[in-house]
């Protein structure tokens, strides 16, 4: 067995001090340790895909990161693994437990995934190895995974069999006081035909967001493409895939770089797809994050098919999830209010109803996604950060 404290120590020696994941009984000891060691960061994600996206955001912020998951949840992570970490060349380390491994007694729901886990990783072009059963080979295994991941600029997976981690009791933590649920502030215009367009909302955001110390993350589809059409800027990132993961990616970046203003531009379809991350954002409450939901009630870039957002109060949901301030309506003045100086109060959520459609088909970014990301990292100074930055672990 591997002592979880020893695993964390050796991982930290390589610079891995940031974790995000979804629990599995095979990882109980490790999660008990990394979630309570003050030298480490652990984000409890709503699903495995959001864990990968949050870890990717942390890496962009300058922290080497590890995403933890059960192999049954690997399917939830396929989209960000194939269209975020692969396309943007982000070397997140994965710890994936192997439930249902052939020859091992397990529950019937794990049988198929247990058989196909290695093949699924191979199909996604993710190199992998088994985590050793003792600490003797741990340093070598981690070093090999880190080297491969760094050279390829892509994820590497360590498969964790039953009994690999020894038990570990969590360190007692002081529970924070409960947060007071805020009441959304509303500004509505009438009639609905007077709603602003997406391009008008983006123009207002571009005008209000200063280039220095800011990052704007635009969800996939027309939001990112119209933002690009308004002018390509070094602080902008266009999510070309991984639908729904912009907010979890922004969470990882905001937590690792508290001096930055992180603005996430979401869509109603994307937010519906991974609504659980609203709860995660509220729970970890990064004060430097602004979450703007541009809601036109349709999937614009695929032909205008309606979403189910028409009668959903995203603002009420965000307020219930713990956002520090929540605004809703169809008036662009909400953006002025949201982007004023908050003095460390956040995250802030804006549910802005906009008109469907676009005046013209917006262009796709002319730079490769990985080049856009490296440019952003240069802008915020992540590329110049030391490769191994970890506080001393217990």
Describe the structure.
The model has no long low-confidence stretch (mean pLDDT 93). By secondary structure, this protein is an alpha/beta fold. The chain has 2 domains: 4-160, 3-Layer(aba) Sandwich (Rossmann fold); 185-379, Thiamin diphosphate (ThDP)-binding fold, Pyr/PP domains (Rossmann fold, 3-Layer(aba) Sandwich), CATH 3.40.50.970. The strands form 3 sheets. It has a 7-stranded parallel β-sheet, with helices on both faces. Strands 2-1-3-4-6-5 form a 6-stranded parallel β-sheet, with helices on both faces. Strands 12-13 form a two-stranded antiparallel sheet. It is built from 14 helices and 15 strands. The longest helix has 15 residues, at 138-152.
Describe the global form: globular
Our measurement of the CA-to-CA distance between the termini, rounded to an integer number of angstroms, reads: 19 Å
Q: What percent strand?
A: 15-25%
From the helix content, strand content and strand pairing, which structural class follows? alpha/beta
Measured as a percent range, the helix fraction is 25-40%
Question: How many beta strands in the DSSP annotation?
Answer: 15
| CATH homologous superfamily (4th level) name of the largest domain | Thiamin diphosphate (ThDP)-binding fold, Pyr/PP domains
CATH topology of the largest domain: Rossmann fold
Largest sheet: 7 strands, parallel
Return the CATH class of the largest domain.
Alpha Beta
pLDDT under 50 segments (min length 5)?
Answer: none
Instruction: Specify the oligomeric state.
Output: single chain
């Amino acid at each position: 067995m591997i002592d979880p404290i020893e695993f964390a120590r050796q991982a930290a020696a390589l610079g891995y001090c940031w974790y995000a994941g979804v629990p599995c009984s095979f990882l109980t000891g490790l999660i008990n340790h990394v979630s309570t060691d003050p030298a480490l960061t652990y984000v409890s994600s709503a699903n495995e895909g959001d864990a990968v996206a949050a870890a990717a955001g942390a890496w962009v912020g300058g922290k080497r990161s590890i995403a933890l998951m059960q192999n049954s949840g690997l399917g939830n992570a396929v989209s960000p693994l194939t269209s975020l970490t692969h396309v943007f060349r982000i070397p997140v380390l994965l710890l994936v437990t192997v439930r249902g491994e052939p020859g091992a007694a397990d529950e019937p729901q794990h049988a198929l995934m247990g058989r196909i886990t290695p093949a699924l990783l191979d199909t996604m072009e993710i190199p992998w190895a088994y985590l050793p059963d003792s600490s003797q080979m741990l340093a070598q295994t981690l070093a090999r995974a880190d080297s491969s991941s760094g050279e390829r600029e892509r994820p590497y997976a360590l498969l964790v069999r039953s009994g690999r981690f020894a038990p570990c009791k969590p360190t007692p933590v002081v529970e924070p006081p409960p947060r007071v649920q805020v009441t959304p502030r509303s500004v509505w215009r009438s009639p609905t035909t007077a709603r602003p367009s997406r391009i008008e909302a983006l123009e207002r955001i571009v005008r209000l967001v200063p280039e220095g110390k800011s990052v704007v993350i635009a969800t996939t589809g027309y939001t990112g493409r119209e933002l690009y059409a308004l002018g390509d800027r070094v602080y902008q990132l266009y999510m070309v895939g991984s639908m729904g993961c912009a907010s979890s990616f922004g969470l990882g970046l905001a937590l690792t770089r508290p001096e930055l203003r992180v603005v996430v531009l979401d869509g109603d379809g994307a937010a519906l797809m991974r609504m659980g991350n609203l709860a995660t954002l509220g729970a970890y409450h990064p004060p430097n994050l602004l979450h703007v939901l541009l809601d036109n009630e349709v999937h614009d870039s695929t032909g205008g098919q309606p979403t189910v957002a028409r009668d959903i109060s995203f603002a009420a949901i965000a307020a219930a999830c713990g956002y520090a301030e929540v605004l809703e309506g169809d008036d662009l003045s909400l953006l002025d209010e949201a982007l004023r100086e908050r003095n460390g109060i956040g995250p802030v959520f804006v549910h802005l109803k906009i008109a469907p459609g676009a005046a013209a088909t917006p262009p796709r970014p002319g730079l490769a996604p990985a080049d856009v990301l490296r440019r952003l990292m240069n802008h915020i100074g992540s590329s110049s950060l030391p490769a191994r930055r970890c506080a001393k672990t217990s």
